[in-house]
Design brief:
The protein is of the alpha/beta class and about 900 residues long. The protein has 30 helices and 38 strands. The strands form 7 sheets. It has an 8-stranded mixed β-sheet with strand order 31-32-33-34-35-36-38-37, sandwiched between helices. Strand 35, helix 29 and strand 36 form a beta-alpha-beta unit. The longest helix is centred in the middle third of the chain and has 21 residues. The two termini are about 20 Å apart.
């Protein structure tokens, strides 16, 4: 009930203010004045044992003396009293707390101890939720509720604003009053000891008055909760985030290239991208974008057309667009002809479309309409400058009237002062965002475009890449944990490559040589040319100490290189243990591209994967992309396509294209490795050579988390995303003897899922969805095939046909509430496979999954005429209630013997 209990904080009927004083300028005095004077419709109880009354309102000595139990208590005392006050509140049954008091972990070691005491007290009361400590408070304009020490109340709106910085909140509020920006909720979470960003995204995601969510993030503590909540709601409600503290020097102590390149900010960037969030880098633009995205006309791409009545602003907008990576669209021949036929002869004859200084409102509107009809155009920016013959208000009305004919995004730039105000008001009523400068409009458009592409890429249907392993991965893991990982903190090249190779990634095989003669013998066994590398458990970056020599062609070169290499390494790192060199066959990389592929375990977000430009200059150029395992084909491909060197992989200037499909398979194999081994702190493959035919790891280094060897981690606790649950794959036999495979759905199943629904009758579709469900689109199908396996799990029944192809014949779906206590269940069986007990088989299997996850209650709905499923529910001991309409509600408590 943790998320539901937030109603105590955001929809209270009674509020206790603990520590309020008579000082009108104190935190308590301002908060009391805000509540009583702001129109809050509930009851306010001042609590202070030293006062009989505060501002004429009777005061109570403690929460136990209150006439009725408050929903919310606000603590604003000295920090040292807070633990006891939390206990007092819990004992009288107060479920919501806001701790405004400062002096906790933000103040040093003593404050951290005090915050730990508060946590310990809170743990005694499972239903209690706390915002803070060290926070400004909350504002809910729709309830006239200002539980904060900020002055004034912003207007009602549809944006939920959540900030870790109280000082920033006051600035934003001041700005909001001036700009007339409205909010559904305004929350300062301070240290977020209990209620986190993820909790609030879950709560506001279900709030009908909240249309978008804005986050000011300094750090994220509960990464998996954040990711799960953001992914659950980012499709329906845009989530805009500004991350401060982007450039801490956090990579200084990294033991690998991957560790150094996977900086804190690049990891946050990967988190926001994978969650489908829109990231804003300039806080001053955040509400510009919020306004634009709130209009709900999201462009499909970054192709922009500009309609203007002056050349200068059009050029300014174009410069800004190109610098931010947008595309000034090339208009089609048909569009150009229409414009030529309509506009005066001296129009610009290109994009930007300069409709000239004497443009009438009708000319502006018709030109914009023609451009929007071009299938190459994703959005139009209309720029107007006040000239002698210009009518800004009438032009705005003409654009607004025309906008109802299109679903594409229209953005307005009305450049001027007082004369533009009426036009801007018209745009606001029509749902068109307007800006005072071309650059401001372009920045908002590009953020929107990036957000749109981010969501599109996130739900691109991947093609299936069959990945099989030569060894049982569970048995392999036992071997490495017992025999290999305990050897050293940093595994030698041979052991590192052995694990990489066991996961199906080709490697060169180094052989150690302790002496000059051994080096010669090993080189002749492998055949010239060879590569010599320094062999030392203490040297991570071999090139830095002259520890790599390529293309060694004969015995003399081997001997000379051995002597020089060991001597130089000893001089540059006198404390390093030198065990000789390793010898490996030289790979012809003439047609190859050097990449780096690796993983790093972040303390907050767990294991993250990296791919980028490799070799000795990897850290210099920092051409990289980060992602979180698990990967599918589409995510792996997007990682590669984002690199600046990607054109070299596709065949730059007539060069032979490299084996990108094999490279994608390597990335997917690496993601399996990353998921299977929480004990790997860092893993580097550098360089990974990609040729037209092969992908080969020439060097590898693994850094072991020795603490986890002593106390093993919970399965997949090192991953921010739950991987595909292979353990839920099971075999079943239907009543007629047909074997089927029961397994979780995958994004790659989208074509089969569409075929499944296409083979169902209208009655079957209605029984499942309760309305005439339109399913035949990628946008709809992806919502059912792309799931996070955390809150939602869909089990498909897969049947292999006589010709060896596979089909889906049924699907059971479990969707949990944000508190993961109740799951809704739905099932669909294709008509051909009904009356074979597949419904019972699927439902019983899903029931077992819900029980194993600790779900307390399973609920479903169907209709009276769906007698086969009612029979299934009855057989599985569900409680069945026939409603007054045609619906039937069924429930089953899973934590009882019902």
């Amino acid at each position: 009930m943790a998320i539901k209990k937030l109603d105590s904080i955001f929809r209270p009927k009674r509020i206790a203010l603990i520590g309020v004083s008579n000082n009108p300028d104190s935190v308590g005095g301002i908060t009391l004045r805000n509540l009583v004077g702001g129109g809050f419709n509930g009851v306010v109880y001042p609590v202070n044992p030293k006062r009989e009354a505060v501002f004429g309102i009777p005061c109570y000595p403690d929460v136990k003396s209150l006439p009725k139990t408050p929903d919310l208590a606000v603590i604003m005392t000295a920090a040292k009293w807070v633990p006891q006050l939390v206990r007092d509140c819990g004992e009288v049954g107060i479920h919501g707390l806001i701790i405004m008091s400062a002096g906790f972990k933000e103040s040093g070691d003593e404050g951290k101890k005090l915050e730990a005491q508060v946590k310990a007290e809170k743990a005694r009361f499972p239903d209690m939720r706390i915002i803070g400590p060290n926070c400004l408070g909350i504002l809910v304009p729709g309830l006239n509720m200002n539980v904060s020490f900020a002055a004034g109340m912003p207007k009602k709106g549809h944006v939920a604003f959540i900030s870790q910085s109280g000082a920033l909140c006051t600035s934003v509020l001041d700005w909001a009053y001036e700009s007339k920006i409205g909010f559904s909720h305004f929350v300062s979470i301070g240290n977020s000891m209990d209620v986190s960003f993820g909790d609030l995204i879950d709560y506001f995601g279900q709030d009908p008055n909240t249309k978008s969510i804005v986050l000011y993030v300094e750090s994220i503590a509960d990464a998996r909760t954040f990711m799960s909540a953001a992914r659950a709601f980012s499709r329906e409600k845009p989530i805009i985030v500004y991350k401060s503290g982007r450039f801490p020097e956090s990579a200084a102590a990294a033991a690998s290239h991957t560790g150094a390149m996977a900086s804190e900010d690049s990891i946050y960037d990967a988190v926001f991208r994978r969650a489908g969030l829109a990231r804003v880098f300039d806080f001053g633009n955040i509400f510009d974008f919020t306004d634009l995205v709130g209009r709900r006309r999201i462009p499909k791409g970054n192709r922009l057309a500009i309609v203007t009545n002056a050349g200068g602003p059009g050029v300014m907008a174009t410069d800004s667009l190109i610098s931010l990576g947008g595309k000034l669209v090339q208009l089609s021949d048909e569009t150009m002809q229409k414009l030529n036929d309509y506009l005066p002869p001296f129009w610009s004859h290109g994009n930007p479309i300069d409709v000239l200084g004497d443009a009438t409102p009708e000319r502006f509107a018709r030109s914009t309409e023609i451009v929007l009809e071009d299938e190459n155009v994703d959005a139009v920016l209309v720029l107007l400058t006040p000239q002698a013959m210009t009518d800004p208000t009438a032009t705005a009305q003409a654009i607004a009237d025309m906008s109802v004919k299109t679903t594409k995004s229209i953005i307005a730039g009305w450049l001027g002062g007082a004369g533009m105000r009426e036009g801007i008001q018209i745009f606001n009523k029509a749902g068109i965002s307007s800006y005072a400068a071309p650059e401001q409009a372009i920045r908002a458009f590009m953020t929107l475009s990036d957000y749109s592409m981010n969501l599109k890429n996130l739900y691109e249907t991947p093609r299936e890449v069959p990945v099989s392993f030569e060894y049982d991965r569970h048995e392999l893991r036992k071997k490495y944990l017992k025999e290999v990982f305990p050897k050293a903190k940093i595994l030698n090249e041979d052991d590192s490559k052995m694990l990489v190779n066991d996961y199906g990634i080709d490697t060169t095989h180094p052989t150690p040589a302790a002496t000059e003669d051994e080096a010669v013998a090993r080189a002749e066994e492998k055949g010239y040319p060879v590569v010599l590398k320094i062999y030392s458990p203490d040297i991570t970056h071999k090139s830095d100490v002259g520890g790599v020599a390529l293309n060694i062609k004969n015995e003399d070169m081997v001997r000379a290189t051995f002597r020089n290499m060991t001597k130089t390494a000893a001089e540059k790192m006198p404390n390093a243990r030198i065990d000789g060199v390793t010898i490996q066959k030289m790979v012809d990389s003439k047609d190859g591209i050097e990449l780096i592929v690796g993983t790093k375990k972040d303390p907050i977000f767990g294991t993250v994967m990296l791919v980028g430009m490799g070799g000795t200059t990897a850290e210099l150029f920092k051409d990289k992309r980060l992602e979180f395992p698990p990967l599918n084909e589409q995510l792996a491909r997007q990682m590669l396509e984002s690199l600046k060197i990607y054109p070299l992989l596709t065949g730059w200037r007539g060069d032979t294209p490299k084996n990108i499909d094999k490279l994608i398979e390597v990335l997917i194999r690496m993601s399996y490795l990353a998921a299977d081994y929480p004990e790997i702190e860092e893993l580097d493959i550098n360089p990974l050579i990609v040729t037209p035919n092969d992908v080969i790891a020439l060097d590898a280094r693994i850094v072991v988390d020795e603490d986890l060897l002593k106390s093993p981690a919970k399965e997949y606790s090192h991953l921010i995303l739950r991987p595909y649950p292979e353990s839920l794959i099971s075999k079943a036999v239907l009543k007629d003897g047909t074997p089927v495979c029961l397994r979780p759905i995958r994004p790659e199943d989208e074509p089969m899922w569409l075929e499944l629904l296409g083979s169902c009758s209208k009655d079957a579709i209605y029984h499942r969805f309760r309305y005439d469900f339109y399913f035949d689109s990628h946008e709809v199908a992806s919502q059912f095939c792309f799931i996070d396996y955390d809150r939602e799990i869909a089990i498909v029944a897969e049947h292999e046909k006589e010709d060896g192809t596979k089909e889906l014949i049924g699907v059971g779906r479990l969707i949990a509430d944000p508190d993961v206590e109740v799951m809704e269940y739905a099932i669909l069986i294709t008509d051909k496979w009904q009356k074979k007990e597949l419904g019972y088989t699927l439902t019983n299997y899903c029931l077992g999954i819900a029980k194993s996850r600790g779900i307390k209650k399973l609920a479903a709905e169907t209709t009276r005429d769906n007698k086969p499923m009612i029979s299934v529910f009855r057989k599985l001991n569900f409680k069945i209630r026939f409603n007054e309409d045609t619906t039937v509600s069924v429930t089953k408590l899973l934590d009882s013997d019902e």
